[in-house]
Amino acid sequence: MIGKSISHYRITEKLGGGGMGIVYKAEDTRLKRTVALKFLPPDLTRDEDAKKRFVHEAQAASALEHPNICNVHEIDETQDGQMFICMACYEGETLKKKIERGPLKVDEAVNIAVQVAGGLARAHEAGITHRDIKPANVMVTDRGEVKIVDFGLAKLSGRTRVTKTGTTAGTIAYMSPEQSRGEGVDSRTDIWSLGVVLYEMLTGKLPFKGDYEQAVVFSILNEDPEPLRNLRSEVPIGLERIVHKAMAKSPGERYRQVRDVLVELETLGTEQETRSMTAGRGRKSIAVLPFKSLSESKEDEYFSDGITEDILTQLSRIGDLKVISRTSVMRYKKSEKSLLEIGRELGVATILEGSVRRSGDRVRIVGELIDAQTDEHIWAETYDSEMRDIFDIQSDVAQKIALTLKARLSPEEKERIEKKPTEDLTAYDYYLRGRDYYYRYRKQDNENAIELFEKALSLDPNYALAHSGLADAYGQRTQRFGFAPAWADSAIEAGKRAISIDAGCAEAHKALGLAYWVKGWFRKALEADRMAAELNPNYYPAVANIGGVNEHIGKYDEALKWMRKALALNPIFPNSYVQIGNVYRLLDDYGEAERWYNRALELQPDLVFAHGGLVLIYLAQGKRDRAVAQSQKLVAIAPGEISALDHAGFVELVLGNYEQARQYYERAMETFGAGLPGLTGISVPTRLAYVLWETGRQEEAREMFGRSLDLAHQRLEQGTEWAYVRYEIAAAQAVQGHRTEACVWLRRAIDGGWRDYRIGSIDPLFRNLREDQEFKQIMAEVKGMVDETRKRIQEE
Hints:
This protein is α+β, with helices and mostly antiparallel strands. The protein has five domains: about 5-90, 2-Layer Sandwich (Phosphorylase Kinase, domain 1); about 95-275, Orthogonal Bundle (Transferase(Phosphotransferase), domain 1), CATH 1.10.510.10; about 285-420, TolB, N-terminal domain (Rossmann fold, 3-Layer(aba) Sandwich), CATH 3.40.50.10070; about 425-535, Tetratricopeptide repeat domain (Serine Threonine Protein Phosphatase 5, Tetratricopeptide repeat), CATH 1.25.40; about 680-795, Serine Threonine Protein Phosphatase 5, Tetratricopeptide repeat. The chain contains 37 helices and 15 strands. Helix 26 (about 575-585) packs antiparallel against helix 27 (about 590-605) and helix 35 runs parallel beside helix 37. The two termini are about 40 Å apart. The model is unreliable at about 155-170 and about 270-280 (pLDDT under 50).
């Protein structure tokens, strides 16, 4: 074949071959590019019906346009009827050849698996199952890019089942149990095969082996593979859990969809974070489960929860440990799951559990440290002491666990762990009660928390943590519950007071960062939260807030880095997933964004922010019916939530249903009155004014526009860096026909980090500018910024 011409392709060399055909490198003489031609075995294409089905499926696969799927340029036949596929030609090698040289590095294997999962996810969304995922069908280019090849060939060859012909032991080794039995298959068979490939990349061995086909099938159906970490101890426990679940023999016990696998692989973090979780850390990851309250009074549960959090906080100050956030561990308070299951879900090597009994002025605390993989008890201690020793006990537990896990403890960390927060035990009790109320995130509970923090401070005015709690609760008054913006100033005052008492208090710096965030002072918020994260590297709220602030200023690559770290610290907290979903939505990667939102909803089906994100995705994609259905579902779930009403109103505005939009926005105004929280304090009246404008009530509309613009300019005078404040000013000006002012303010919004050009392009308030050349240019410029950022993130 070398030197021959087939159609307009001139064959230059043979690249390889196997049971599914021979591949040649060729020159496309028309388009002057190098391609790969795969000639299919004649016996696979004699059946005309099979050939037509294959062509149809291959055409569907070629339309996927995903960076991890091999591009198919053409399907054709030679003059003598031999079918061939023209594909992109990549410089590199198959994954099979890489594995033949030995196991891959952990981070390299994870990176390849992420890319394979990404390509499969795109195919599965289009209703296409590969059915023959194996290392020979995965190309790895010289740039480290992964390309999945041979979509549709498994179906053409009958490889949905084991037969006496048309299969090889190499293919059978990657077949799922249902595929091996000749049963119907779906996308979960690809998940199984991906798990096998990942196992092989990490160990250099197949999980299911045999000297002949039926022996391999028997192993697949009946035997469990040797645990990954028995073969390679530095494999992170979280990664072993992913492989284990992907290869569950029952499809129902596997991941529901390959995007879930992708989420979990990405949760392991970037290449550097993956390495840090391997041999260097060993057992240095821990989850502190809620200690059981053995006190006679059920009301004492706040005390055992408080002790749990305080021990967790002491451990989290140790930079050499990975410590799971309180939010995730508290979900296991009444769980009946085994410690092994919990360890797998949280991705930790060890678990601390225990009990607390308080009686009068005495306390008994029992703690047990357990290996999350073997259920082995590593360390245990019982403390039976007077209440005045409570802080010494917490410090001792943290230091002994660090010693047991061989975690390095710096002198500064040791000093912070040993420092007593207060000498007044009654103040400490008030603080624990206040914190318990604060974490409920309800308006009256927040007020109860404030009262209790103030009581603590009346007994010990120098109690830094109580000042921090007060700062948090004051900030929530404005951010969450619609109180006057001045409460953010009170939060700043309380946060600064806490820092003046104890500059090493991470909680104080985080509280100050939250207050700055509420004010819209993003640079100051970043500075405060970074200090909190430096003092406590495992402090989820500070880490997550750094990610959130970077999103608001348009630094999506930096945002994702911190958000992934936050997810690793809080792996079953739904808001961790929403944060990442928001960034991918703003990056125009709607498949990724939807996957992250849906993962959040699996954890919390009524999560307003996830439903709201889906509404915006569907609107941006032009899927109006789905946007309406999602917005109505959102309002049904949270009829009194300002965010739900705002999203539903916006959907109706886009559709031109002004009466329905008016009802949603008026409900929002009636519910919150002058106390509309956050940005909705500007956006809701602005959009209600637009409804009035479009329904012939222009004088009323001008008055309402004036009120929202006054409020926006007040925020700007107070130093807010919220880009959306400037965006709302631009929108109000656009509706009223002030084209120049609208474009000026829109550019100012972009300077502040606004990048949501997809929504901006369909926002009804900019309808007057849709055909304006400057407006079009502005939208094109923002699209270019987003495209550049997305490309940079994909290349990292």
